[in-house]
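Field: COMPLEX_INPUT
Field: COMPONENT_COUNT = two
Field: RESIDUE_TOTAL = 603
Field: MODE = joint
Values follow.
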Amino acid sequence: MSDAATMTGLARRGLVPGLALLVAILAMASLAAGPVRLSPSDIVAALLGRGDEAIRTIVTEIRLPRAILAVAIGGILGLSGAAMQGLLRNPLAAPSLFGAPQSAAFAAVATISLGLNDALSWGLPVAAIAGAFLSVFVLVAVAGRNASLLLLILSGLAISSLAGAGTALAMNLAPNPFAALEIAFWLLGSLEDRSMRHVALALPFIIPAALILYLQRGAFRALALGEEAAASLGVGVARLRLVVITGVALGVGAAVSVAGTIAFIGLVAPHLMRPLVGYDPARVLVPSALTGAALLLAADIAVRIIPATTNIKVGVLTAIIGVPFFLWLIVRERRSLAGGVA
Amino acid sequence: MSDAAHLLLAEGVGVAYGGCPVVTDAAFGLDAGRLVALVGPNGAGKTTLLRALGGLTPSTGRITVAGTDLLKLPPRERARRIAFLPQGHVVHWPLTARDVVALGRYPHGLADPSRMGARDAAIVDAALARTDASAFAGRQVTTLSGGERARVMLARVLAVEAPILLADEPTAALDPRHQIGIMAALREEARRGALVIAVTHDLGLAARMADEVMVIDRGRIVARGAPRTVLTPQLMREVYGVDALVTEHAGEPVIVPWTAP
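Field: COMPLEX_OUTPUT
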């Protein structure tokens, strides 16, 4: 093996541990950042159930759920993005392509608009997850169980648009301006004031979703040769599509249900990692999840630090930073994209 | 030879797309160690028949592989017995040539090429060597020329080590040297004991290299046998609608399509 190959081998082996360390450091910073600055020793003491009671409350009841949700939601967004891009063999595919997050958002917003829930009650996440599931059922009912990708994308587009229209209608019909504002703010995406109940609600969906998507990694690599070659290698392509759609709906639906819509992490995280794993659609999965977690943690810390009269929502920040960054990536990778995905 | 002894047996095989028959009543038995050229005009049903033989498109009738019904084989098992090289040599991500060839081991349970065992690695290296692709094994396939990419793709199906290899126009869009190289590698695979079926429009190469030619026209198999007995001027006129020069050079058949009347 040449020196260069050994070097890239080492870099690849170090990638996942390195990213995991970064996530751990950012998680620690997330526990420290806020109106009350805390030192690492305060945090460790509080996590172990020792130290000042007020600090313990801040750490375990206010900041810990927020950090856990940032890791889980950022992670599932990054993983879902990588899985969708593997399934579609297209670096522009996003987790929202088949309409699950939009449907989850619509279901959540509808309950606010009808006055059933306020934005932080926990009937809302239940409605949102139901919305994400409903979108999968509608998608499969419309496109059929053995649908081609094109049919699924078209159906997904229709479902996304319908859910978007439904969301607009819910805002339109909101009983009072405050409800409309509450909906608008909820849609922007935030991890503020979330509790362990939100964690308990989201994780049972996010963890199985992550496992489901990760287990398809070999099939994503085979799909690099196209659907026909993948089928000839023993991949059940039609089944794979349904599994990925369901996994993404499960994970991203749960993410939306507790945090609103958080844009661009699913699209950007796999992009960042792909050159570091030799463009392998399977090896990109875990680094993308870790990168998603790191990005959302960082964004959620940033919204607490940035001085502003009104709190900036984390979903706004990920989009504001994510989009120009994505444009820069497109420019940088113009050549390899044109060659690789023709 | 009795039917059951054939490696690949088709009985009354038919394929229809949207109620329109594309392949009708295909029946033949093919044996190990043969290179079979599947030829016919555009739209005759060559690719469709090949896909049906590979279990990649639903068909009526019966296809058996070494006595086992194709439809009863689980996908992985089918993939270990029948390797399939699609048209066009598509690769959607800039993977290295070696990682692409390692995908041939996927049906054998290899999930990650970076953690390949010694046996899989030896098979992948041997496949690269047999298609003369070892020199660019570490390069991204998207940076390779058409001919180089075709060799990598062929190495990928060789790495499956399946008893049956189906290749859909493996020499299309290649220069003469690569066309001959690819067909020679397929013939070599047949000599090693595989049944190789290659769809091709290159009748000259088919006549020279194939052990057997199977001609399909409007969905039906109209002729089958040794190239010399099948590829006659009369058949060329009836099936392709062209007059052809059929002769010999250095003891090998030569066929050159000449004029369309």
